[in-house]
Amino acid sequence: MAHLAAxxxxxxxxxxxxxxxxxxxxxxxxxxxxxxxxxPAWRFPRSLPAFWRAMxxxxxxxxxxxxxxxxxxLMGLFARCRGDxxxxxxxxxxxxxxxxxxxxxxxxxxxxxxxxxxxxxxLIAVQHVQQLAILNPRLRKRTAHVPNxxxxxxxSPRVYDATTIDAIxxxxxxxxxxxxxxxxxxxxxxxxxxxxxxxxxxxVSGTLQAGLEQRISKLENLTFYGPQxxxxxxxxxxxxxxxxxTSCAEGFPNTMLEAWSVGxxxxxxxxxxxxxxxxxxxxxxxxxxxxxxxxxxxxARTKSLNQRCGKVALSYVRRRHSLEAVCQxxxxxxxxxxxxxxxxxxxxxxx
Length: 351
Known about the structure:
It contains 14 helices and 14 strands. It has helices spanning 2-10, 47-58, 72-82, 99-102, 107-119, 129-134, 179-188, 206-218, 230-237, 254-260, 276-280, 289-301, 303-320, 323-333; strands spanning 14-19, 27-30, 33-37, 62-66, 86-90, 123-126, 143-145, 165-170, 194-197, 222-226, 240-245, 266-268, 283-285, 344-348. The strands form 2 sheets. An 8-stranded mixed beta sheet has the order 2-3-1-14-4-5-6-7, with helices on both faces. The mean pLDDT is 94.
């Protein structure tokens, strides 16, 4: 959200970013984006009218939201009241395509509100064709494919012979990411060098976290970097031969796009967004742990195969996930809005 907002501001748009947890209100200008801490929360009832006032102050041509929230319907209502504002909701995960899989807690409360929010949209932006198939048929007519934005693309792939890491895993450590399977992979390939980047999500139990930390400490061929800033993550990717994904569910992982943007192929256990990994030849989708071990070993050790996948990946992100590609998709999805001119776009993030 932040990278897209900054990129659009760089094109001359007036962009506002609403964020926070309902507690305070502040306004800052960052990278050309007006950042307002005014996102609503049920535990602070006054935050709802404050959120409405913030939207009214920005008076956007486009409202753009991402990730499930109880307040999408409020954005939809604002768009209806304004008349000339269009409300776009961007899917971020395949599980968000249906209200009852979008939440793993208090579904009886959150799912109906999320469903109401989806129905209040003017447009639902999907990341790949598989999300379109999962959506409620009544919502499919208001969808459009809008690719994730990759911040930058290298002129050429990173140099295979200069890499110091064979495989890297990057994610917020939560249950759906299945980190234990990556640790199994590292244990099965003791001669390869593995890296792990990410911090533990608060939803991970203390017992599970302690168990994973103990396993990490015992793997001599694994380096745990913990949570890192974007620039450090990109620097680590440039030193890798492969990005590994072990998640059971994703949308279109930004980590894959970031890896491909430096020419690093991907080996995924099960996630293949829109089928592009196999269709384009940017790595492997293993489907079983036995095959995952084989694929990682082969792609790490076979220089010609690794380089070929990396070059294809670099070309793919340059064509499909550049700022130009994202702007074109938004223009096609929102007739009358010229992304190259200067409409006002407001996005809502979550603190």
